[in-house]
Fold these 4 entries.
Entry 1:
Amino acid sequence: MSKIVPNYSFQQGMLHVHIFSCKQPDAPIIYLHDLNGYGRQILPLLKDYPSFHLVTITIPDNLWSHILAPWNTPVGFPEYVACTGGAPQYLKTFVEEIIPHAESLLPPVSWRGIAGYSLAGLFSIYAMCETELFDRVASACGSLWFPDFENWFTRHLPLRLPKSVYFSSSRNEYYTTNPFLAPNQKTTESIQHWLDRHHVQTTFVLNPGNHYQDAIPRTAAAVGWILENPRG
């Protein structure tokens, strides 16, 4: 397999932004936040899907739990999921600097999507509510256990309804008895049901195993679904 290289790249602070463009005119664009640069690895898995531009925003390990988190997790929350709330500040950079710069390098796009895995999946839902930019949203194994996120969603409903939203989870985390992570199921179902009632096309996929398995194919499946849905 030939090496997948970006057509354009630029640095935004500590973040590396790579643009993998397609030749089709008026193609959609998908923004994917990733860790350690795995985002490009979804492309071979999507070769039979409609053409699209992919923009990966690679976040260093030490910033992952900061810039994607809407607010701080409370004192006493487990260290392995401790987060500091950098998402509001980062969202401004994403919207005002990264997206315009990326799209200045491409022909006009037909629509925008945002996708991510784990905390990046949480950020995708957060961005859906705080901006009017995204027509389709993919939250793959999104960290919707995030403290008080369900209540936050009811107070910060999407500024503009997207056309479709993809949700997934792993079976082990969806049915966990861990008290800190258990809100994932209820919050996911609550947000999906709200969107369904407002005529947004949604789907939910329950994957076998745990959160850390198959992140790349799960992310590819999420992006593939929003590329094809809604149909027509």
Note: The mean pLDDT is 96.
Entry 2:
Amino acid sequence: MRVRIATFVLVVVGGIAGTAHAANWRTFHATTQGFALSLPDSWVSVSTLDQAALNVLAKEAGFASIASSASSSTDITIFASDKTAFMDAGGYRTSFTSIDTVAADAVKTLHASKNTAQVTPSFVVLPSGKAALITYLLGTGPGQVKASEYIFFRDSIVHVVNYASPVAKWAHYSSTFHESAQTFEYEKGQDLSPLVLSGAEVGKGFQSEPFPGGTSVIGETTLDLCNQTFASESLRTSRLQVHYKYGKDFPISNEVVAYTAGGAAQALAEVKNAAAACSAATITRIQGSNRVSFHTAPLNVSGLPAGSVAVTLHVVLQSAGKTITEDGVAIYMVRGNILSGVYAYTAPGLPMAKISELAIHSAKRSAEKLGGLTLAA
């Protein structure tokens, strides 16, 4: 998600639930983005409004495009309004290393827009920590809007909370916006560490190590089988992936993911469809001078939860006149709202027959761990 300039359109931030925060306030939980914040209980999620209410919003000066987006987009899930002012929020992964550089980039983007004016950056200390605060004007004339953008940064993740109202009504809303920003808090996802395999459970000689980016659902992928698209990626709430060192290589990994209600089942159904498509025909992706081809074949494995998907993988990368081939195994299983994936590729000393044996063994051990705990239905 980047700074919204023209319409403040929101990207996916996850499911919403409302709980009491204080008298006459409610808390919005963005479970798939790991944060929550509160607003007066007169504010509602725009995505929950019916078309008649959205038509009313569309008549408010400066906000017609926002109401239109809320009406047509299926991606907006935490976008709140009291029919005059608006709040949207979301998160994204960045390569920047500090809140200062994130804020400087946001200010640069706003200055470069022909539709913004009076861009004023500052920093504030809130209960959740140091945050950047950028105020600016959007548009001109009777429909001009004033906005406050709060930017939070932690562990390479940027969370942006935008508040906006017509300029003429700014004095009425500014204190509410600031009070709401102070309620921003990071929420911990489910502890998945008891469900991830240890090195010993994978096999003799394997040592577990953290997978780069293996604890985040923001900007990190779970499902990418055969380069297909998986809508369930936006339904993840917690994720933990580790890989296992064997000699100098990391030929196998285990990823355990928690989803919102129904998300794990959807993910498994999407994997099944992707595997079927990739088995029926080779799927090729061309990016610049690189050409990557994917092909799968069903792998029969007994003793796994019903509906589990197991495939062998054959990947061919052609780049700069060179051809690199990878063969491996991917096994996916679900219990409740938890998905476990075991991924393994051939390596020195681990030919296809051996890596398949290890992957199947690891998948069965993972199934035992999934069944050993009481999980959400």
Note: The chain is about 25% helix and 40% strand.
Entry 3:
Amino acid sequence: MRSELELAVRYYETDQMGIVHHSNYVRYFECGRSDMMKKYGLPIEVIEKEGVMLPIVSVEARYRTPARMGDTVRIVSSIDKVPMAKLVVNSEIFNQDGVLLCTGKVVLGFIDAVTRHPVRCPQNLSDLIAAHIDE
């Protein structure tokens, strides 16, 4: 399962040198992940309305080259394994010239919205991912 999203670097995401602050890459990961779920017809807010929340368990990022003011970043999000207890979303961020800026991985868990206890991946999500795993 794979998706791409392009975003213009915004002024407030940069420091005085015009370089994107490292914390914004985690936001880019989230933008890409949310956009991917919408494109595949199962936005995260639908999963939450069905009573399952997806808290972040961990985030990894490897910074290679900085994005700069005026750049357009392309966020490539992918899921390569059908989740059971956790969902792993991989991300790659490129600039408009195709230069790899950052790679990352976000791990999400599944909890019941009322009890806040861990639950398995919702069936509709695992079915969706299984149907598109090789894309």
Note: The longest strand covers residues 100-109.
Entry 4:
Amino acid sequence: MSKLKLSVLDQSPIHDGKDDKEGLLDTIKLAKKCESLGYHRYWLAEHHNTPGYASSNPEVMVNIVASNTNKIRVGSGGVMLNHYSSFKVAETFNTLEALYSNRIDVGIGRATGANFLTARALHEQNGNEYSQKAYELIGYLNQNLSKEHPYHNVTLTPQNIKPPPVYLLGSSESSSTLAGILGAGFVLALFIGTHNRSTKIIKDYKKSFVATNVLKKPKAILAVACIVGDTIEEAQFIASTHTYWKLQAFTRPNRDALLSPNDLKSVIENLSPSDKKYYDETMNTMILGTAHSCKKQIEMLALEYDVDEVMIVNVTYSFQDRINTYEALSRVFDLNKNNKI
């Protein structure tokens, strides 16, 4: 596993009780840092009307991160395609690829990234259209929509741009199989929810994969939540911020912004038995511990799921705590030696 690639999925958390916009500025700082540390890609997430997270527009953040870095691949993780016209998304990423040749990834997902009312404000379409939109997006980028499609003759501007690879993000067989059929990459989100994700998801993806001019072979990635501390107890303490935020997200109609671990001590002690159970289950889905123990866990997962790349999701109250994790993982994986970009 010495050649395992590590990448970053950034949800642009708002750190240290700062103003919301600082979450976007911290994303730029972290992207530059992670490029220097040898990470392979840097993807930006999409969340709407979500306390604690700053980025609602990943394509804008892809542009600004790419313009502030030099070599690292940059992409969306992901654009929530049901909200948007597949042609407009194709135009956007075709333009980004024209500006940053061979550095852009198009990550898409079917979730809303928003509450019901906000999703309606975004003109969300019926979720059943996701498969068709994903097909159209890839067809527009590759200029190979079937002749029967009503928009077969519509072309992207600027023209003659090498199409960027498309990745589907998901946590189930439906997304992985669709990715394979479409000849797209697939990212299995182990950091979402607490349900079991079978290795069969990746196996089915590889089995169903149809080669394209953009991806000749299946490309599967794992996305995991990971926090490094000097001890596992310190990592768990730091992780309480994200764990409690997730507890609110999945069990409460409203949620707070990111709270500091110190402020959460008494809150966690007074959780109801059912909430404490969900809190513990959520924390158990994260990779927590020292740098060396986290390395072992990441390598075991990569071996179990048969992937050569893992994306690290890291949400903390303190911005410095996030930097510490990415620095520590870079050291133990020797990324600047192994992950030549």
Note: The chain is about 45% helix and 15% strand.
